[in-house]
Design brief:
Number of domains: 4
Radius of gyration: 33 Å
Helix content: 55-70%
Distance between the termini: 106 Å
Mean pLDDT: 91
Family: Belongs to the RecX family.
CATH class of the largest domain: Mainly Alpha
CATH architecture of the largest domain: Orthogonal Bundle
Order of helices and strands: EEEHEHHHHHHHHHHHH
Largest sheet: 4 strands, antiparallel
Organism: Levilactobacillus lanxiensis
Number of strands: 4
Strand order of the largest sheet: 3-2-1-4
Structural class: alpha+beta
Shape: rod-shaped
Number of helices: 13
Oligomer: single chain
Main location: cytoplasm
Function: Modulates RecA activity.
Pfam families: RecX_HTH1 (PF21982), RecX_HTH2 (PF02631), RecX_HTH3 (PF21981)
Amino acid sequence: MAVITMIEAQKRSGRYNVYIDGAYAFPVSESVLIDFRLFKGMEVDQELKAQLVDADNVSKAYNRALDYLSNQLRTEKEVHDKLVTLEIPEPTIDATFKKLRELHLLDDAHYAASYVRTMMHTGDKGPRVIRQHLRQKGVGEKLIDDALLLYTPEDRLTVGTAVAQKLAKRYHRQAFGTQQQKIRQGLMSRGFNNDEIGQMLESLDLTPDVDQQHELLVKQGEKVWHRYRTLSPSERKYKTKQVLYRKGFQLDDISQWLADLGESAE
């Protein structure tokens, strides 16, 4: 029976070299050394040696996982993908995950709930975008559903209305129709649904500034009118009205402005 003849500390803290029958055999971590109660004079057969090597591989993978988890919460998929990039075999990853779960260091439910709370208090995203993010991180649908229960309709209205107010300021120099469209698109892209967006716009109680809108119409209208100067009067009027309408101005306002230019309005 082979016998451990020396256990030597490496320069790296927490790592040891094990010698069997006077020859270097394998390295182990301090945790493996303690768990298996290794000592000089201990008999080691092939089965125990294989267990020690496997346990040390898990210990190294576990420490790599801890390093990855040290800065922020991670999902199981993220940790798994990281260990795969380190060329750690699947059986070792499985054993490492078992240890991480037992110590509650991996918990997708906790990750999902924490992410939703963060978005509620510091973010500007609605449920759909949050769901997409959690899916990309590998969180299961049931866990996502449970986490999104924390994001109440009242919370969503508060977050979305704050976003809508910022968008309204950003687009206040555009035609009123375009401003509303931009706000709606911005909220939709952030993951809020149509019903919620309607409530948010209603809460803003937006009203056009008549003088400002007229000024914008005149400024943009003159550019468009000049652009189509080579067209016939009727086609020029039609094209101008079409462009300004697409820019978000009201048809009645456009017709009045054209009338002010001396053209007959429809």
